[in-house]
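Memo to structure team: turn this sequence into structure tokens by end of day. - J.P.
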Amino acid sequence: MSILVDHCVPRKFLRLIREWGYDASLLTDYLAADASDEAILALAQRLDAVLLTADLDFANILNYPPGNYAGIMAIRYGAASEAGLILTLRQALGDLYRDSLRGILVIIEPQRYRIRRS
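Reply from structure team:
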């Protein structure tokens, strides 16, 4: 399992995730930045990757039931709260990486993360 970082996530996160020892790649290495949500999720499935995104459309479990995917992590990004968000992302990855991420949606906020299932 790897992490596919969406184009809307600051590149700093890709660098940090790799420094933390996780296998991660950038979406735009495979698809154009304007690719459809369906194409993005199809790529994540093909790569057996968790999608890390700041696009909160992916947090809609009615449109994107987490049980259908290797995992979706949606960050509620704001530059003012970046430090807290980075700490929470690291904690969530440490707690959930690999099989615990399969089939769930993780909403990551600066001071906490929440798990949603379909």
